[in-house]
Amino acid sequence: MSTVGELVADHSRQFSLRGRTFVSVYPVFSRRARGISVGVNLNLDRGCNFDCIYCQVDRTGPLSPRIPPLKELPALVGEELSLLFEAISSGEFFSSPPFDDLPESLRAVRDIAFSGDGEPTMSPVFMEAATLARDFLSRQFAHGESPLLRLITNGTGLFGRELRAKTEEVFLSSGSGEIWLKLDAASQPYFDRIERSRIPFPRMMEGLEEIVMSLPVTLQTMVLDFGAPDMPGSFASDRRFWEPLLKQVESWARQGAKIRGWHLYGVARTPALPEVRRVDPERLKVYAGEARERLPFPVEVF
Ligand code: SF4
Predict the structure, then answer these.
(1) Atom 6 (ligand 1): residue with closest C-alpha?
(2) How far, in Å, from the CA of 196 to the mean position of ligand 1?
(3) CA distances from 163 to 131, 211, 224 (A)
(4) Whether 218 and 188 share a structural domain
(5) Average pLDDT over residues 275-299
(6) How far is the CA of 118 from the centre of ligand 1 (A)?
(7) pTM of the entire predicted model
């Protein structure tokens, strides 16, 4: 039996239905989506242009032997979405473990979320697969309320104008899509420590600014504590982390950014690195309170 807490902690990409193990599509319970989120993983090689200190993806084990050639991946996404949604509509999905333990109020599919084992916008088949998922949702839910088509991104693929425009068209033009944009640091030391990306920090901030000025996005910030006071190189998630972040978001808001909301959250699952710790929920509430006083959009804590 799984509790809701265990389902939150279990974001396994492994999903099987009627003896078939899925490759690219995986349902999880999501506290931020408040129900079932159907993930789409296009980064089957687990490649990412960030190396976030809190990343849940274990990149040490062998890759799945069932990775298809890239050009076949969008069709596979379509096939797996069809099978999964068929099992959801027939009732089979919510009568099988672990999702049979979910309370009635949480038994709803909230979104198809492009997320996965790496940055989705970096996949060469991202747009093809996203278009296919959008068309799938409009067919499947032609006469009812549709789950959202959601992109969870660090934004880097959207620095290019062409992909940004196409992403806007596919995810946002129908009015039933959302983009959740990662913003984990707004100062060089914390960007270096948390994201561990080769992308230069000034380029990152410039690119993120272009995105928030042109697309309606929900910002996502992971707030962490690191290590213990006696651990070399450790630091707490203190004012030096928080103040540049709040100032940056406030400055974007003043310049007319299209930010729809800001999610502040702590780690729900055990991160790969032992020195990464869960932030005190009280501190998250203090940060959210300060942000609400200074920003014109909702700030939520998870
Ligand atoms: S961007 Fe996402 S997948 Fe990539 S390292 Fe960070 S948390 Fe992991």
Answers:
(1) 52
(2) 10
(3) 13, 11, 31
(4) yes
(5) 90
(6) 6
(7) 0.91
